[in-house]
Design goal:
748 residues; 28 helices; seven-stranded mixed beta sheet; six-stranded parallel beta sheet; single chain; alpha/beta
Length: 748
């Protein structure tokens, strides 16, 4: 159950450990294509302490059992003879043998096996088709650039979605691929509904889940079970798991932590929750879990627990123990993905958009460049909580060390950096380190669309393997961006997105509607800004979400400042984060939901840019006040010509082929240098004076990415002028030298 590396640490005589392993798991459901990383992070930390642990993603294990020929046969048998189903469900039931026959092959294909099945799937006579296929786009158009394999993935995804619809309608209303019973978990101020549901008989999904859990517990015989609950859609299943463990293995301690607890359960007071868990921890899990293990071992007293809720004398008690310090990011170890079924995850393509598909397609090792957010000002965000407030970056060298470890461990070289916002300076250093080590990796990250992302920095990121970024544009209105304290403008976002796109990096924007005081006019104008960005080709994907006022955000903490009112001041005994509110000065935000999302779906497919904005809505909306060329004009800036002395200058290209020759004209002669540069696609020749040519060749050698030290733009200028040459800017920023950025001469 542990690697040899883990065992060597485990035997360290000064370190304590449980007599049986800690069992870490994520309950259903998060993602099908890659494991949620919380348990891998915690397992990596426990390795550094010599504490044996085992982890599992019960979501993928439950999914693989449901979508198997054996289980589908059981499902259809259970539905036999029943009535009252929709026409769609009846069709699927009628085609049940086709589903049973094809399901195992489809799952294997989506797991990366049997790639030749793509040809059969794309013939459209291999898979049974129900309601989801009626929503298909023009596949020949959509996949002209993506290829037959992606087309087959999309068709197979629709096939699974049809079966999901059947399960949801006929046997388990709470089912969803990436969430389960999410409605009950979201904004559950009262525990009553969840508690009542947990007294009912097991659902179809419950039965499969508990059977798998039982096998794990009986095999591992853990002393501590740690359940990570990142989202509301994992809450119900985590409670079901805790309920079964406490009933059947009362000596096993159960702790719950994760994103849901961190944001929703900070004022927990309902003692019934502790019928399912013994402990609930908040924020970073390393120190709380370590203290909890020591407490279970009898090495610490209960008052020494850290950021932990538990039941003491039938009263929910929070033990903070602020004297116990959290671990620095350099001390928590490399995430450990061992035990997880990495070759069994399913890559799906639900929406035909290369950027949008990254969340569901491909196996990504998850890492963070920094703890917390370096900006930490956005007024809609929970910036008062430690997971955002406490900013601590990791060095580029340590990040690359961890990347190399994970590549060796998982066999996968794809990375998703899941920071609140990856710091541009650290992204630059990481890219340089990746290139120096000659790592072949593919990566993407969450960012802020700030002006630091210049043309040259984006080119550097692309050269290191960056393929995409996602970031918050939020409300595309300068007034509201200022109110949000986003620190950006719409024009700035447009220029940054152009830099990314021109470098070959895809861009996804998180969009918001319904921020306090947002008017009808601002909503339509925001949509127009988004339309223009898609039409300009500088935005590839986006998603609208409605503003939610949360208890730990500046808006939630001081609603009067933002001219909104809480509907109620009452705090629930269970989850308290989302706050119902009234926006007396803003638009009726709910009305805009469907039209905003429908228009966006079309824009992501490159369609309907000439469609009048009012046609997306079934009620009267104002005309946009945004000029039709607003974004186009914003993109005219030449920011890369600004002289920044402290910028690092890097040469990513190969050494040029140099020829010296004499140029003659009207009796005059000049000693010249011809420098021929070649990259993977093309060739360029530049001609300069021989002294300048010799200086440039020598300088490029000093600027090479392979060198240990980097040189600033001011140092390059000083070297140029030391040779007696005049006007560095004229030489550097004009033809022929200024074209070398295309070959890897970058100012970052």
């Amino acid at each position: 159950m542990t690697s040899s590396k883990t065992k060597s640490i485990f035997l360290h005589p000064k370190l304590f450990y449980l007599s049986a392993p800690v069992f870490l798991f994520t309950p259903p459901f998060t993602q099908l294509n890659t494991p949620y990383p919380a348990t891998a992070y915690l397992k990596g930390f426990l390795n550094t302490k010599g504490i044996e642990s085992y982890q599992a993603d019960l979501g993928i294990e439950v999914t693989l059992q449901i979508f198997s020929s054996k289980e589908l046969a059981n499902l259809f048998a259970a539905l036999s003879g029943k009535e009252g189903f929709s026409d769609n469900a009846k069709r699927i039931i009628a085609l049940q043998q086709d589903y049973i026959t094809t399901i195992d092959a489809v799952i294997k294909f989506l797991q990366g096996g049997n790639p030749t099945l793509a040809h059969l799937i794309c013939k459209r006579d291999f898979l049974p088709e129900a309601q989801r296929f009626a929503q298909l786009d023009d596949l020949a158009w959509a996949f002209g650039s993506m290829g037959i394999h992606d087309k087959a993935k999309h068709l197979a995804t629709m096939y699974l979605e049809d079966l999901s619809d059947l399960i949801k309608e006929c046997v388990d209303e709470h089912f969803g691929f990436s969430r389960y019973a999410e409605r009950m978990g979201r904004s559950a101020n009262s525990f009553d509904e969840l508690y009542a549901a947990l007294q009912n008989d097991y659902t179809y999904i419950d039965t499969i889940l508990i059977n798998i859990l039982q096998q794990k517990i009986e095999e591992l015989k853990p002393s501590l079970v740690a359940i990570s609950v990142p989202f509301p859609g994992n809450l119900y299943t985590s409670l079901r798991c805790g309920q079964w463990i406490k009933k059947n293995h009362p000596s096993v301690k159960v702790v719950m932590g994760g994103g849901f607890a961190n944001t929703e359960l900070r004022s927990l007071s309902d003692e019934r929750v502790f019928e399912f868990f013994d402990f609930i921890t908040l924020d970073d899990g390393e120190a709380p879990v370590e203290n909890l293990i020591a407490y279970i071992n009898g090495e610490k007293k209960i008052e020494e627990l850290k950021r932990t809720f538990t039941l003491i004398k039938n009263t929910v008690t929070y033990i903070n123990n602020s004297s116990c310090k959290d671990y620095k990011q350099g001390q928590v170890g490399t995430p450990d993905y061992s035990d997880l079924l990495l070759d069994k995850y399913i890559s799906a393509i639900e929406i035909i958009n290369p950027m949008h598909s990254l969340w569901s397609d491909g196996r990504w090792n998850k890492l963070t460049m920094a703890h917390g957010c370096y900006w930490g000002k956005c007024t809609f965000c929970d910036i008062s909580l430690d997971y955002i407030r406490l900013y601590e970056p990791v060095t580029a060298a340590l990040l690359c060390d961890r990347m190399e470890e994970l590549i060796a461990q998982t066999g996968q070289s794809g990375f998703h950096f899941v920071d609140e916002a990856a710091p541009p300076a650290l992204m630059r250093e990481l890219a340089i380190e990746i290139l120096k080590r000659k790592l072949i990796v593919t990566w993407w990250a969450n960012v802020r669309f700030e002006k630091s992302f210049t043309r040259d920095l984006c080119l550097l990121l692309k050269a290191s393997g960056c393929i995409a970024v996602s970031g918050g544009l939020e409300v595309a209105s300068d007034r509201l961006l200022k109110l949000i304290e986003k620190g950006i403008t719409v024009a700035q976002v447009a220029r940054v997105n152009k830099n990314f796109t021109d470098a070959g990096i895809m861009v996804h924007a998180y969009l918001m509607y319904g921020f306090p005081t947002q008017t009808d006019q601002e909503t339509i104008d925001s949509l127009e800004m988004v339309r223009q960005m898609f039409e300009a080709g500088i935005l590839q994907s986006a998603f609208w979400h409605q503003f939610t006022m949360t208890a730990h955000s500046p808006v939630g903490l001081n609603p009067a400042k933002y001219k909104v009112q809480k509907k109620s001041e009452l705090m629930g005994a269970f989850a308290n984060n989302d706050i119902e509110h009234i926006d007396p000065t803003g638009a009726d935000h709910e009305l805009y939901s469907f039209g905003l999302k429908k228009s966006l779906l079309n824009y992501m497919h490159g369609a309907c840019f000439d469609f009048p904005l009012n046609k997306w809505f079934d009620f009267k909306v104002p005309k946009t006040s945004i000029a039709p060329d607003y974004i186009a004009n914003a993109l005219q800036s030449d920011e890369h010509l600004i002289f920044k002395p402290t910028a690092k200058v890097i040469w990513l290209g190969n050494a040029p082929l140099v020829n010296y020759y004499t140029k003659s004209k009207k009796g005059n002669q000049w000693e010249m240098a011809s420098l021929i540069f070649q990259n993977k696609k093309t060739t360029i020749e530049i001609n300069v004076s021989q002294p300048e040519g010799k200086w440039l060749v020598n300088m490029l050698e000093q600027l090479s990415i392979n060198n240990a030290t980097t040189i600033t733009l001011q140092q390059v200028k000083d070297s140029f002028e030391a040779e007696g040459f005049d006007d560095f800017e004229l030489f550097w920023d004009n033809k022929p030298v200024n074209g070398l950025w295309k070959f890897g001469l970058l100012k970052v």
